[in-house]
Amino acid sequence: MSDPVYQVIGEAADVAENRGKAYMVDGVQIAVIRHEGKLYAVDEFCTHADASLAFGHVKDGCVACPWHYAEFDLETGAAKSLPAVEAVKTYPVRETEDGKIEVALG
Ligand code: FES
Description:
By secondary structure, the protein is mainly β. It is built from no helices and 10 strands. The protein has a single domain (7-103), classed as Rieske Iron-sulfur Protein (3-layer Sandwich), CATH 2.102.10. FE2/S2 (inorganic) cluster binds at residues 46, 48-49, 51, 65, 67-68, 70, 83-84.
């Protein structure tokens, strides 16, 4: 398997703890979310009815959709509670030493 190719998408300081921010990367809309200091990247839109997970409530390793509160695991993207049943995609994401966010869409 080849290594993921990372690209810079923004400033790490723009994503505060337990907050998300939406980014368009190569035509893919993703939400970058910080939780317990770590960054996660998932598809922006909830698999139930397309609310933006960039505005979700972040707690206990999950982001809860702002519309009907389905929770998604930040690590795996798995839907942990109804009404969503389908996972969101996750993407490798990292913070560089000079404070940038890099993601790999794969
Ligand atoms: S749109 Fe996310 S739970 Fe309904």
